[in-house]
Amino acid sequence: MSVFPATAAAKAKERRASAAAPRPGSRNQRAAYWFIAPLGIGFALFYFWPLLQTFYFSFTEFGAFGGHTFIGTDNYARVIQDVTVWQALVNTLIYSVIGLTALPIAIVVASLLNRRGLRGVSVYRALYFVPFVTLPVAVGLVWNWLYNGDFGLLNEILGWFGVDRHYWVSDPSTAVYAIGTVMVWSTTGYYLIIFMAGIKGIPQDYYEAAELDGAGALRRFFTITLPLLSPTLFFASIICMINSLQTFDLIYIMMGEKNPAIGDTQSVVGLFYKWAFIENAQGAAAALAFLLMVVIAALTYLQFRLQKRWVHYA
Amino acid sequence: MRRRTLLGGALAAPLLAACSGGGDDTDGGGGTTLTYGMWDPAQVPGMKKIIAAFRKEHPRISVRIELTPWATYWTTLKTSMRGGTAPDVFWMNAVNFQLYAANGVLEPLSGHIRSDRTPVGSHPEALVKLYAYEGTQYGLPKDFDTIGLWYNKALFDKAGITYPDESWTWDDVRDAAAELTDPHERVHGFAAEMDRQGKIYPAVCGADGYVLKDGRSGFGEERSIEGLRFLTDMVDRGWSPPQSAMVESVGRVRYWSEKVAMNYDLSAMAGQMYAVPALKDHGGIAVLPKGRRRATIIHGLANVISAKSRKKAAAWQFVHFMAGREAAEIQAREGVTISSYAGTQDAWLTSMPEFDLKHFIEMQKYAVPYPSSKNTAVWENLQYPILGAAFSGKGGIESAARKLGGQMDRALKEERAV
C-alpha cells in the first residue's frame, strides 16, 4: 500500500495511455494497418472490385461463354423501358414496407421481455431467434405447406370460421403479402436481439424516477424507451430496408416458375437472377444490379437526412 | 523482412496448389481419363455399365462421371466453360443446344461421323436434326421421350367409361373428363396445367398450330390458340384443377395420388409411375388423342464434346461408342429412358410388362421436335407469366396468346440481331 495510492495509479494510467496513443508514422500505427488489412483486402476484393466490374459490364453486351463488346447505354435504356423492371421495383418496395413492420413487433416483444423479474428470458430469446437462423429454403418450404390451398393448415383453421379456401401464394392479390408475412416472421428475432440490447443500455434510474412521478407502463414506453431507443431503431431500420430491397431466396423458393402470380411477386434481385443466369443477358442484368444499388443508396441517404428529426442520442 | 517473406509464401501456396491440379491429361497407367457431365442420378448405374463396356474396347480410356443436379446443371456448365474446367463430354438438350453451337463451344462432329461411319441413320431423324446447327452435326442422340396419355383404369371403371385408345379425339377426352370429375372426392378428369413439353406444345401442335416456324412465333395463330383453349377450357369447366392449385401439387403428383384421372406425361416417367403400386396395378397408357391432327412432342438428349477439351480424340471414341447399338442396348435394359437407337427398345418395353409402353415408340411417326432457337430460354420464360391467369380460370386465353406471340416475335428478332 503506497501513501497516495489513487494518485500513483492515475499517473501510471496516464503514462500507459500516452504510450498507447498512436503517433503518426509510428510502428504502432503500421501494426494497426496490418490488423485491418484482412478486412480491407476482403472488402476490396469481394465488394469494391465487383462493384467496379458490374458498373463496367453494365455498358457491355456479354457473350454467353465469355467475351464482351461495349454497347454504351443500351442496357440502361432496356432496363428503363422494360415494364417487368418497374413491376419488380414496385414489388420490392412493397416487400420493404412489409419488412419494416418487423421493427414495431420486435420493439414491443423486446420491451416485454425486458421486464424485471421475467423468468426464462433466454428461452424466449432463442425461440424468437430460431426462424432467423433457419435457412430461407426450409422456411419457404414449410410456409408453402401452411399456405397450401388444398390441405394447408391456414385454410383448415380459416375453414372453421366459414372462410373459403384460398390459394395464398398463387393468387396475385395475396401472394406478395403471403411472402411478406414470412419475411417478417423470419426476421423479427434478429431485430428483437438488437432491441433487447438497446433497451438494456437505458439507465434504470429514468424508469424509477418516472414511476415515482406516477407514469404508467405505456407512458414510460413512449417517453423513455422509444426516444432513447431511437439510435438503435435507426440502425435497425436501415439494415431492415436494405435486406428487404435485396430479398430473393424466399421468393424464389416459395413461387416456383409456373406460379401465375410470378409477375406480381418478383423482386428486383429475382429479375436480376433471371436475366443473368437464365436468359444470358448479363450486361442488362449488371445495369439492373447497378440501378438497385443506386436506389438503396438513395433511400439510405434519405434515412440519414431524416434521422435528425427523430433520432435522439442520449 | 523475414516476416514479409513468410506472408508472401503463405499467399502463394494455394495458387501453386491450384496450378498443379490442372495438367492431369493422363491417369496413373498412362491412359486418358475423360470427364462425362450429366444430371440424372437415376441414369448413373446404366452409364457406368456403358462405360465398363467401352473400357473393354478402349482399355486406355477411362471415363469419370461428373453428376450435377438439374437445377444447377446449366449455370455450372456455362461457368465451367468460361473457366476451362468443363467436362470433355456432356449431356445436351434441345433448349440449350443452339446457344452452345452458335457460340462455338461444341466440337463439330460431321467429319468424324463420316470417317468412322457412326450409325446416325439408326436414330430418329427428327432428333438427329435437333442437334445440327447450320448444316453441321454437333451432337449424337442417346435417348428420346414422347408424351402419352396416362390414365387411371380404376377411376375409368368407376365412372363406367371405356379406356382411351387410338380412336380417341379431343371430344372423347372432354366427355370423359366431365364424367370422371367428382368434386365431392376432389377428383379431376384431367390436369391441364402450364407445362411446355407435356401439355402446351402437344396441344398447340395437335390443333395444327405451331410454336416456332421460320423464326416466327405461332402463339398468335388461330389454330395454336384453339389448342391452348382445349386446355384452359378444361380449367374453366372445372374438369381440371386451376394452375393456381397445381403450383402446389403438380398434375403428375395428382395423377400419382389418384386425384386426376387423365394426364399427359413423358415416357421417361414410366419408371416412377411403375414404382407406385396402385399405378403399376391399374395405370394405363394410350397415344395422345387426336385434335385437328395427330401430334406429340419428341425430345431427347445428345452427347456432345466440349470444343475446349484437350482430349478430343478419346472423347470422340466415347461419343461414337455411345451412339452405337451396344451402348443403346445397355441403356434400354436399365429401363430409365428409351434408347434412341432403332430396334434396341425391346429391352425397355419388356422392363415394365404391365405398361403398354409401345405407344410411346409408335408415336414417333407423327412426333414434332421440341421447338428451339438460339436463345430459347428468353421466349420460353415469357410463357408462364403471360398465360398464368388464363390457366387459372380467369379467362382471356385469346388475348394472352396473342400477347405472347407478339413478345416472342420481338425476342426472336433481338436474337437474330445479336
Automatic annotation (TrEMBL), chain A:
Domain ABC transmembrane type-1: 88-303
Superkingdom, natural source: Bacteria
Gene3D superfamilies per record: MetI-like
A single GO cellular-component term on record: plasma membrane
Transmembrane segment boundaries: 31-49, 93-114, 126-146, 175-199, 220-245, 281-302
Keyword annotations from UniProtKB, A to Z: Cell membrane, Membrane, Transmembrane, Transmembrane helix, Transport
GO aspect biological process, one term: transmembrane transport
Name by which UniProt lists this protein: N-Acetyl-D-glucosamine ABC transport system, permease protein 1
Pfam families: BPD_transp_1
Record PANTHER family: ABC TRANSPORTER PERMEASE PROTEIN, DIACETYLCHITOBIOSE UPTAKE SYSTEM PERMEASE PROTEIN NGCF
Main location: membrane
Organism: Streptomyces formicae
InterPro entries associated with the record: ABC_transporter_permease, MetI-like, MetI-like_sf
From TrEMBL, chain B:
Cell wall biogenesis/degradation as UniProt keyword: no
Signal sequence range: 1-17
Compartments where located: Cell envelope
Chief place where the protein resides: other
Keyword Signal in annotation: yes
Cited InterPro entries: Bact_solute-bd_prot1 (IPR050490), SBP (IPR006059)
Domain of life, per lineage: Bacteria
One family name in Pfam for this protein: SBP_bac_1
Swiss-Prot/TrEMBL keywords: Signal, Transport
GO cellular component, as recorded: cell envelope
Recorded family membership: Belongs to the bacterial solute-binding protein 1 family.
Protein's UniProt name: N-Acetyl-D-glucosamine ABC transport system, sugar-binding protein
